[in-house]
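hi! just following up on the protien thing from before. the input was this:
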Amino acid sequence: MQVIDRFHAQQRAAEALQEIRIQAIDEENKAIEMARKAKGTYLPELLSNGDTVKQMLARSRYLLYKNKHKWTLEQ
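and the predicted 3d structure came back as:
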């Protein structure tokens, strides 16, 4: 028998998002390192708000726990 309650569902979702964040940050760090080795410049992809994916993922960590009505314009 499987029981799903709100706490554990949120916990699983947060764990999954954290894995996505870690993967994306690792990928960008590898791209930066490859650019350094090639003596080049790394230019990350910018999102519509001017953030890189790495910046957006780092700042959005607790956003899902915050009520949408309390978000700032940037969020």
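The chain has one domain: 6-70.
The chain has a mean pLDDT of 83.
cheers
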